[in-house]
Amino acid sequence: MTEGIDWIDRAGARAKGKRPAYFDAPEQDRTLSIVLALVAEVSALRERLDTVERLLDTNGTIRRGDIEAYVPDAAAGRERGVLVKAYIARVMRGLTQEMEAMATPEPSVEQVSRELRDL
Question: What is the pTM of this model?
Fold first, then answer.
């Protein structure tokens, strides 16, 4: 099915259209892109390691083909889903906190001063 595909060439392929810009500085967007690519790679490695651990628990030994052929059952799939959500939440915590802070701006110094004066 995947024989003959040059995965190195495919990895370097450019997406069609303009890249999305999230920050004012393009280098920040590039850094975000790199970090998210690394997050995806680590997530894939974690899933593969989970497969290895489950196969070792079940069979005591594994072959590469066992890893490639493994299909998690529903319980393993749910457990992996929870782990991935927790992982992404940890990685994105800083951005999430920034977005929450922007949604609920802190009161100005003047406003705090007035509130303290009125106590």
Answer: 0.67
